[in-house]
Amino acid sequence: MKKPSHPEPVASLPEVRYPREQIPSIRRVMMPRDTNAFGTIFGGVILSEIDLAAAVEAHRHHSGRLVTVALDGVVFRAPVHVGDLVSFFTETVRIGRTSIRVKIRVWAEGRFSSRSPVFVTEAEATMVAVDEQGAKVPIGPR
Ligand SMILES: CC(C)(COP(=O)(O)OP(=O)(O)OC[C@H]1O[C@@H](n2cnc3c(N)ncnc32)[C@H](O)[C@@H]1OP(=O)(O)O)[C@@H](O)C(=O)NCCC(=O)NCCS
Prior knowledge:
Blueprint: E1 26-29, H1 43-58, E2 65-72, E3 84-95, E4 99-110, E5 118-130
Antiparallel strand pairs: 1-3, 2-5, 3-4, 4-5
């Protein structure tokens, strides 16, 4: 039987620098309603905001409907806490015929502490332009 290949451990992932000069597509303070059963922030909340941030970025290139076809590469490197200000920085990676690929990087900073922002995760989302019936359509100019 083929041995399963393990992903790279978090500790060996490359370092990422806080993009001070960039304006995030979304910024949000985490609230108690965003927590999991252990009191830290539920990963699904972050994933949902990643999806929204990708849509904000993709809509810079296409004003019609966009749906998410893929969300790749999410590895959570650090926990997020209630009261943290979480920033979702985005960058368009590729504009295809019907799709737009967006990189999203997530940083958290404690609003009531002086610690520097912590890199939480990154992802690549692919959004596809669709019509009212949900059929793919070419990416159009805004
Ligand atoms: C998005 C959707 C309309 C695409 O239809 P499709 O006929 O399967 O489309 P294709 O396979 O031709 O791919 C369309 C584009 O998406 C890209 N794409 C498709 N699958 C992909 C994947 N797994 N990863 C990255 N890109 C992908 C293709 O490369 C293509 O891009 P291009 O035209 O810019 O070259 C269809 O799959 C769909 O409706 N999916 C559900 C979307 C949704 O509801 N999302 C929310 C889930 S709750």
